[in-house]
Amino acid sequence: TAVRVFADPFALLEHDRIEGGEYRWQTTGLVDTALILLVAHADREEDGIEVIRIISARRATSKEKRHYAQNRSI
Fold this sequence. Notes:
A four-stranded antiparallel sheet has the order 1-2-3-4. It has one helix at 62-72, and strands spanning 12-19, 22-31, 35-46, 49-59. The protein is mostly beta strands. Helices cover 15% and strands 55% of the residues. The chain has one domain (2-72). The mean pLDDT is 94. It starts with 11 loop residues before the first strand and ends with a helix.
């Protein structure tokens, strides 16, 4: 389910931090019609292909849902 946030054309991608030389990101996006998830992930390239490693995923908090909705309406 978590991987589907990347299919949301309105997904919010935000830099989170660098850990062990690896850039960590948070993407908030809509899955199905009513579920908004926040997915923490790292991106890397393997053999010329971008690979997304999902670290964790959870339901977005009320604050994160508002942030997503505000940016979606821009």
